Amino acid sequence: MNILRLKTLLGAGCFSLSLIGSVHAGGLERGGYDIDLLFDPAPVATDLSATYVMPQRDLKNAVDTSGGGLTGKSTARNTEGYWVPYIGAKATLGYGVDCMVDYSQPWGASSNPGIWNGSYSNINTQIKSNNYAGTCSYKMDVGKGQLRFIGGVFYQEVYGFKESYANPLLGTTLGRVDLDSNGWGWRAGIAYEIPDIALRASLVYNSQVKLDNISGKLTIGGFPTPIFGAEQSMPDSLELKLQSGIAPGWLAFGSIKWVNWSVLQSVPICPTLFPASSCFTGSPALTLPKS
Asked: How many CB atoms lie within 10 A of CB 83?
């Protein structure tokens, strides 16, 4: 995997014939959450950055096992390169209070292998997100450094689509699922800093984002059907970051992060003309690729 970062400082299954299915998540993290700008010592600071990621993950020797009898390409580029933008602004408000607002894209996936021997599983999947956050902190002198208490809220949009051949019984009929959702989350954390030696330790928890209004459409052979999804949540996370100056002009840093992917194992979907209780159980799966 190749990563290029530019920064300016002024972060399967199948379509069901009954139009019922579920979406499985796997490795959808993109930019994650980043509040490092909050620690900038300047009274006012901005951050405009973009990270380009080239996963370069290829599939080889692919064989159709769906029963559709595909004899197309056995090799495909499974993941595409993508940009992860970040925009943030921070200000010191006085009395130990700092606040920032930022835009990021914490979740996403991009897989566009095209027509190949796995076309009943995936032809093109694109998942994107928008995250708008406000975060503040209060700091006080403790020992040789400063103790900082952190809190904030964020509004998140998650949306995307997946295309594949609908079902081996339908031959090469194209199917597509489009979904859109949004929700709110919050964060809380604590940090300790000794600015003289550039030492900082922070622990920040980001809550789940409840997606209770998932909606979209399922299109098979050009005929769309409105659908909705069962209530789901984007995962919560806990991240520990450490940094310290080790020599003039040199900084050592690292982080450990836990993400609760267990809350997003699948997203059951159902046509809007059916009640949720009649089709959210035991439905086939529509698998999302890893990012």
From this structure: 13
Could you give the CA distance from residue 143 to residue 147 in angstroms, rounded to a whole number? 9
Cβ pair 209, 234 in contact under 8 A:
yes
Q: Which helix or strand (DSSP H or E) is residue 53 part of?
A: strand 44-54
Reading the block at residue 213, the tokens are: 């209004």
- Residue 190's contacts (CB-CB under 8 Å, 6 or more residues apart) are 147, 148, 149, 150, 202, 203
With H, G, I as helix, E, B as strand and everything else as coil, classify residue 146. strand
The Cα angle at residue 115 between residues 113 and 121, in degrees rounded to 5? 70
Does 1 or 204 have the greater pLDDT score?
204
What average pLDDT does this structure show over 25-43? 86
Burial class (CB in 10 A: 0-12, 13-18, 19+), 154: buried
Are 133 and 102 within 8 A, CB to CB?
A: yes
> Residue 49's closest CA among 128, 105, 132, 99?
105
Average the pLDDT over 58-78 and give the result.
Answer: 85
Question: What global pTM score does this model have?
Answer: 0.85
pLDDT at 11: 27
In terms of DSSP bridges, do strands 285-287 and 21-24 run parallel, antiparallel, or are they unpaired? Answer: parallel
Q: Which two tokens stand for residue 105?
A: 């894209």
Distance CA 166, CA 72 (A): 17
- Does residue 206 contact residue 199 with C-beta atoms inside 8 Å? no
Mean pLDDT of all residues in the chain?
84
